[in-house]
Amino acid sequence: MAHTSLFLYFHCGDLLTGYSVGNIIAWKRGTNTVNQICQGVHEGGIFSLCLTNNGHLISGDGKDRRLVFFDAALNPTGHTEELAELYGAVRTITQGPGELLIISTTKNMILEAGPGMEISPLMFGHCEEFWSLAKHPQAHQFLSDGRDHLVILWDSLSKQAIRSKEFTDAIHCAAFYPLQSVLITNGTMSPVNNNHNNIINKTNSLDFNVSVMNSHDLLVVLGTSTGRWLVFNCLKHEIIAVHFDGLGEQIECVAYSPGMLLLLFSFFYSHMYLSMHTSLLNLLFSC
């Protein structure tokens, strides 16, 4: 059974109604007569209708993440825009200055869009409770993560998100590798401190060559709610290692020892602390 999700008065005085099945109906001014039906505009219910300054209509829904554009006669123009999955689905659309559109989403983000420009975030962040913060060892940057599976790298001076990635598991804790020689600024590298050689020391119990960590790597260890922990390269935006210790418990916290030779993990139920020599990760770090 379809129900009305919203309504809007068109420029000619007709009443437009959006429905939970993705249809839009135009009712003739001053009557209860259907003037026009636009069927199957969206896969889900119509969440927003926006009348632009030039008299055109834009619709958005809460499922297919699309913006659908209509002309002044309520005919589809054939032009659509799709939001990235990271942003969520369209919740509301409003006309900004000029031809700029302001869009809010189901993941608590505010986006801007317009002719000749990509959809980009004005306000970006977590849509659920976030569980940890990890400070960059040398730069004014930090990492946040949480229940929404999202990891965001922030610049603390500009208060802007630099990079983000959505993971399969919810991320519960994070720790940067202590020796980092670069910071990220809008996807580019800048030197922070190159006075150290950034060499991971070799221990007597390990039998392989230890190499210098690549200076362009910005590495962080992420502990998940499923007991897996990941090595993530923030700059290359890729997971370079995944490990599972078999406990299947949420990793409460992860930290490097002062000498950077140990990785310490705390698990929720067993309260066990597991350690790994950092040198064991060196081959992964230099991938």
UniProtKB/TrEMBL annotation:
<dbReference type="GO" id="GO:0000226">
    <property type="term" value="P:microtubule cytoskeleton organization"/>
</dbReference>
<dbReference type="InterPro" id="IPR036322">
    <property type="entry name" value="WD40_repeat_dom_sf"/>
</dbReference>
<dbReference type="InterPro" id="IPR050630">
    <property type="entry name" value="WD_repeat_EMAP"/>
</dbReference>
<keyword id="KW-0677">Repeat</keyword>
<dbReference type="InterPro" id="IPR015943">
    <property type="entry name" value="WD40/YVTN_repeat-like_dom_sf"/>
</dbReference>
<dbReference type="Pfam" id="PF23409">
    <property type="entry name" value="Beta-prop_EML"/>
</dbReference>
<dbReference type="InterPro" id="IPR001680">
    <property type="entry name" value="WD40_rpt"/>
</dbReference>
<protein>
    <recommendedName>
        <fullName>EML-like first beta-propeller domain-containing protein</fullName>
    </recommendedName>
</protein>
<dbReference type="GO" id="GO:0008017">
    <property type="term" value="F:microtubule binding"/>
</dbReference>
<dbReference type="InterPro" id="IPR055439">
    <property type="entry name" value="Beta-prop_EML_1st"/>
</dbReference>
<feature type="domain" description="EML-like first beta-propeller">
    <location>
        <begin position="9"/>
        <end position="112"/>
    </location>
</feature>
<feature type="repeat" description="WD">
    <location>
        <begin position="123"/>
        <end position="164"/>
    </location>
</feature>
<dbReference type="GO" id="GO:0072686">
    <property type="term" value="C:mitotic spindle"/>
</dbReference>
<keyword id="KW-0853">WD repeat</keyword>
